[in-house]
Amino acid sequence: MPLAKFETMLKRTMGLDVQSIGRPMLERALHERRDKSGVDDLDAYWLLLQMSEQEQLHLIESVIVPETWFFRNREAFNEMAQLQPQRPISAGQPLRILSLPCSTGEEPYSIAMALLDIGMPPQHFRIDAIDISAQSLAVARQAVYGKNSFRGNSLAFRDHYFALNEQGYALSETVRQQVRFIQSNLFAPTLLYGEAPYDIVFCRNLLIYFDRTTQHQAVTILTQRLAPEGLLFVGPAESALMMQHALTPIKAPMAFAFRQGAPKQEPVKPAAAPIAAFAPQPPAPLRPAPRAAAARAAPSRIRPAAELPVLPQTTLATVQLLADQGQLSEAASLCEQLIQRHGPSAAAYYLMGVIHDAADRKQAAADCYRKALYLEPAHAGAMTHLAALLQTQGDTAGARLLQQRARRSAENNPS
């Protein structure tokens, strides 16, 4: 039986682009749910889906593979705790935070622990956590976790906020009471109806499962829920998409954070600071060009007329600024010239990959990420971005290997 109708249903109900998980995974989920439902074939299962909203939720849970742990990408939580909100915070006007999707609860609970750690009174913040999966929310509400939820070497928080029992590590009530769990999804018409805007929104590693049109719809919904000057945290592979909306990147490496509001239009300056969304790791300095003085004396001999003018002081920071302003073609041309004139570097190829990613040139982006990893095998940004691309292309095994490699690299080189 053709899978198109099932794909359409999943896209309508949860925004899922089946290409992001691969059709084999969908087929496995359909046959698993068909067998558990006791129907004879997929035609009968399709009829069951039309009559049972509960079965639709079961199918959705079968195609969701939650992968989360406490303080995943710790830089985001550190930055969130340090950035001051743009309005007074008090018990009467608490900091409002949204975690969507929240999966089994590790992310919203990490947010709560990070704020408690800096001394913020519990009555001064409130976290709403949303997920489509009732099964994941049941785990989150129980708040008892196994060893897989604790990764890396920085686990002092586990001793402070958890107690070990027969079932696992039970989270303290102090943290649990800060989070309200809600079953819904980003595209539900009644999502957070009547709720005030949020000062901080975490929506990480969800947009990679949507097609480009749905991604933009999702970002629009998120920004509508975000307070003026509010903060939005996304996943590493989603940062380039934010550049196409009225959001300003926060200069914080590896946080992938954006503030509500379009960037201020300023003249491009060659010595501009790197933009965090395009440089999770500071770019490596470019090697001086041979005969730099001669090049400055006779620029016409090194610059074809069709190319952009390249100043001797040009660095990757200029390319990043152009990309941040949405001038992707200009940024790509300038980045290519830098590589030709100064030689290859992991930072340059990584940035070129992010630019191609933002322009929806997936194969070109993947090629650049691979070149960056060839030059710098431990480049975290290239690994996470390439893993996301492989996932969207159905190469789940390759994506998983890169994710594991990036995790090992982070554990061996903690910030």
TrEMBL record:
Record key words, sorted: Methyltransferase, S-adenosyl-L-methionine, TPR repeat, Transferase
Gene3D superfamilies assigned to the protein according to its UniProt record, in alphabetical order: Tetratricopeptide repeat domain, Vaccinia Virus protein VP39
Question: TPR repeats at which positions?
Answer: 346-379
Gene Ontology terms describing biological process: methylation
From the record, give the transmembrane residue ranges: none
Residues of the signal peptide: none
Q: What one GO molecular function would you report for this record?
A: S-adenosylmethionine-dependent methyltransferase activity
Domain of life, per the record? Bacteria
Q: PANTHER family per the record?
A: CHEMOTAXIS PROTEIN METHYLTRANSFERASE (PTHR24422:SF19)
Limits of the CheR-type methyltransferase domain: 1-239
UniProt cross-references to Pfam families, sorted A to Z: CheR
**Protein name per UniProt:** CheR-type methyltransferase domain-containing protein
- InterPro entries given in the database record: Bact_Chemotaxis_MeTrfase (IPR050903), CheR_C (IPR022642), CheR_MeTrfase (IPR000780), SAM-dependent_MTases_sf (IPR029063), TPR-like_helical_dom_sf (IPR011990), TPR_rpt (IPR019734)
- Which lineage ranks, top first, belong to the organism behind this chain? Bacteria, Pseudomonadati, Pseudomonadota, Betaproteobacteria, Burkholderiales
Keyword Transferase set for record: yes
